[in-house]
Amino acid sequence: MKYRKLGTSDLQISEIGFGSWLTFTDPQRKQVAIACVHRALDLGINFLDTANVYETVLGEALAGIKRETYVLATKLFFPMNGADRGLSRKQVQKQLDASLKRLKVDYVDLYQCHRYDFDTPLEETMDALTREVESGKVRYVGFSEWPLDRIEAALQLKNVVRFVSSQPQYSLLHREPEKGLLSLSAKAGISQVVWSPLAQGILTGKYMPKSAVPANSRAADPSMSGFLNQDWLAPATLEAVQEVGRLAAKANFTLPQFALAWVLRQPNVASAIVGASRPEQVSENASASGTHVDPSLFAEAERSLASRG
Questions:
Q1: DSSP 265-301
Q2: Which residues pair with 165 in a beta bridge?
Q3: Mean pLDDT of the chain
Q4: What is the DSSP letter of 45?
Q5: How far apart are CA 21 and CA 23, in angstroms?
Q6: Please, which pLDDT band fits residue 225 given cuts at 50, 70 and 90?
Q7: Residue from 3, 54, 116, 140 carrying the catalytic annotation
Q8: Of 65, 121, 143, 218, whose CB is crowded by the most CB atoms within 10 A?
Q9: For the chain, domain boundaries
């Protein structure tokens, strides 16, 4: 496993991170989820990403593991109940304390604003985050999917903590961060920790053109399919993905490994966060770290996906 520096922090995080959204929200998969965390740690994955709405099982999985051996990131913003949501001073303090209790730790390495809160003044949010860093409960702070103008506004504020990370969706099928976020972040000393680098499972190649979705896939799960970009299930897109899979085979990689290596080709990316439904998937994804792929294959993959109907 290779490691990269996270922004201007002193954190060295694994190129492949492990996220707990899908695996840990299903109580019936609890033991498999814990096994996936342990496999990740065994493989040298030290960056673990979660959020207040789905972090309970991760706390159990980390019980007995030395705190200094992993970098723990969590988030706040989305509703915990009817009243608890957003990035107000009260919510930052309340949700952080609750997260520490669920995760069974004294501090988190990275505390992230899951989205931008237009109902709370930016100054209030940044002041609240600064206080938590000063308290020692948080080491560094980041954001996810903030508008560019709000990022710039935060960077202009004085006497507040500075962001070290951004968590955008980024993959061969979703390249929005290239429209300003990557350049702005690089100038500001902010690294990307990417979510959905496999495009919600589309870039695993398991969805075949003009075929029924696999029974055990996210697209077939009523609780998960609503989060899936349905346009990516179009036959033209799936045919292009299969072509990318053939390119990956030329480089002696699986399609997921190729897709992760594509994300990691970008120097502003510190880590690509993956999920897993079984430990074997963690192992396959982890092997994408440190790989070299001929840039011409990446360029051909980009052309194939750009030309889909």
A1: TSTTEEEEEE--SSHHHHHHHHTTTT----HHHHHHH
A2: 142, 191
A3: 92
A4: -
A5: 6
A6: very low
A7: 54
A8: 143
A9: 3-200+258-290
| 172: nearest Cα among 112, 248, 114, 282 | 248
Q: At 42, which helix (H) or strand (E)?
A: helix 30-42
120-146 pLDDT, tens digit per residue, is: 999 999 999 999 999 999 999 999 999
Cβ neighbours of 105 (radius 10 Å):
17
CA torsion, points 237, 168, 41, 24, in degrees to nearest 10? -80
**Architecture of the domain delimited by 3-200+258-290:** Alpha-Beta Barrel (3.20)
Longest CA–CA separation in the chain, Å: 56
Type of residue numbered 72: L
Q: Where are the alpha helices (DSSP H) in 104-234?
A: 122-135, 148-156, 181-188
Instruction: Please report the pLDDT score of residue 173 as a whole number.
Output: 97
**pLDDT beyond 70 at 217:** no
54 is catalytic: yes
Q: Beta-carbon neighbour count of residue 277 at 10 Å? A: 18
Report the alpha-carbon distance of residue 81 to residue 98 in Å, rounded.
13
